[in-house]
Amino acid sequence: MRASFPSTVPTIACFSTYTNDPQHNEIDICFNDNDSVLHAAYFNGENGDKEILQPVNLGFSSSSGYNHFSFVWSPNSIAWSVNGKVVHTATQSNGKIPWLPQQIVLILRPLSATYKSTAFQNVVYVSYTLLSLVILLCPFY
Question: Where are the beta strands (DSSP E) in 5-140?
Fold first, then answer.
């Protein structure tokens, strides 16, 4: 996905894959309250449906321009990348990798019910490729 995420705080901006049928499975690229910290996260529907999260300091603001955000999801791992560089990898040792087919979801929402400001999420495109058992979400030039 090629996107510029909001710098407006307090918002949650996410690119996710998600299902809740029959169990919650989810993979996320999120920015919660700091546009320079990517939250690489997933839910596997087990262990009380606990989120497995890894904050990744990008060293730059995700709102400063368009960047390529992606993850490669395989049966045994998930690798999150920014601008072609892997920034975090989760394996079965971190917790069971999601296994159910999922839908693509883009989320932009305030963190407060009293939020009265302008927020934006500029997404140029989202693409995916199904390669046998590997689902690949990546930027294509």
Answer: 11-19, 25-31, 37-43, 51-57, 67-74, 77-82, 85-91, 103-110, 122-125, 129-131, 134-137
pTM of the model: 0.79
| Cβ within 8 Å of residue 100, ≥6 positions away | 19, 21, 22, 23, 25, 45
Which of 8-17, 24-33, 76-85, 108-117 has the lowest average pLDDT? 108-117
Helix (H) or strand (E) holding 45: none
Give the DSSP letter of residue 93. Answer: G
> Amino acid identity of 141?
Y
Pair 48, 56: CB distance under 8 Å: no
